[in-house]
Amino acid sequence: MAKMSIDDLKQIKEKTAKETSLREGMANIKITVHMGTCGIAAGARDVMNALMDEMAQTDRQDIRVVASGCMGMCSSEPNVTVEKEGEEPIVYQHMTANKMRQVFRRHVLEGEVQTDFALAKM
Amino acid sequence: MKELSLHILDVAENGISAGADRIEIEVIEDREQNRLQLVIADNGRGIPRDQIDRAMDPFYTSRTTRRVGMGLSLLNAAARQCDGHMWIESDVGKGTRIVAEFVHDHIDRAPLGDMAGTMISLIMGTPTVDFEYRHEVDGSEFVLSTREVKAASGGRQITDPEVFQYIMETLRTGEKRLTEGG
């Protein structure tokens, strides 16, 4: 990716103001990376960074990423929960950067739950 | 935790859980003084006076999802194992400031690690919180303020793809330049 400067940001500013906050309004897929002490120690930061790299490569405006705390299932960390509107939330366990990429591409984008990595339906 | 930057991520997440909407993170490396200082300050609800001492006890937590609270006790242990120390300044209703000091070249000091990764996780994980980040190495510094980024992009959301690509790129190149001395 080409390097961006603060001037590029100012150009972004000049694009239609209508686009602003569309993402918030339209989000119907939520990906939660659990980042308690347990999750962080187990590698949640790498998972989150891999997810952000994937997010940067897609134009999808309907996906929201959030960090949250510990769910109380520390031994299965890093945990990631994928919630799609109208579907049961899926909790993934023992996530890594590569598993996160696979879950993002197959489950989030294409709708195919990655049962091998899943801990539970909620 | 293998890296000090993971402790920073963890302690900053505490601030977010405490309702903060602004978090300042400062890393100061001074090799001449042989010192490394971390500061994580939030404007969350603060820690009541009677709980400050207990905050460093791993068997104390105010949470309800599990019975132990490791975050601050782990950072305290990481500082003490290399002749450093950690302290907590907190005012109820105003916020909390955690300061940890390390001997820079101590053999048992964990490496700082991936600060860009920590900041990306924090900023993207909670785009509603403003982050002020400053990393100083022997007088050179790298600074990133999400508030300034938002203002420069005309109030766009942090989650806007172009804005977060800018933030990721800025953090990764900024940190790389600073730590490689380029």
Question: What does it look like?
Answer:
The complex is a heterodimer of chains A (122) and B (182). By secondary structure, chain A is of the alpha+beta class. Chain A has one domain (23-121): Glutaredoxin, CATH 3.40.30.10. Chain A is 38% helix and 20% strand. Chain A contains five helices and five strands, in the order ααβααβββαβ. A five-stranded mixed sheet of chain A has the order 2-1-3-4-5. Chain A starts with 5 loop residues before the first helix and ends with a strand. Chain B has 182 residues and is an alpha+beta fold. Chain B has a single domain (4-132), classed as Heat Shock Protein 90, CATH 3.30.565.10. In chain B, 36% of the residues lie in helices and 26% in strands. Chain B is built from six helices and six strands. Chain B has helices at residues 4-17, 49-52, 71-80, 115-125, 146-152, 161-180; strands at residues 22-30, 35-42, 85-91, 95-103, 130-137, 140-145. Chain B has a six-stranded mixed sheet with strand order 3-4-2-1-5-6. In chain B, a hairpin with a 4-residue loop joins strand 1 (22-30) and strand 2. In chain B, helix 1 (4-17) packs antiparallel against helix 3, helix 1 (4-17) packs parallel to helix 4 and helix 4 (115-125) packs antiparallel against helix 6. The model of chain B has no long low-confidence stretch (mean pLDDT 91). The chains are: A alpha+beta (122), B alpha+beta (182). The interface between A and B is large, with 42 and 42 residues.
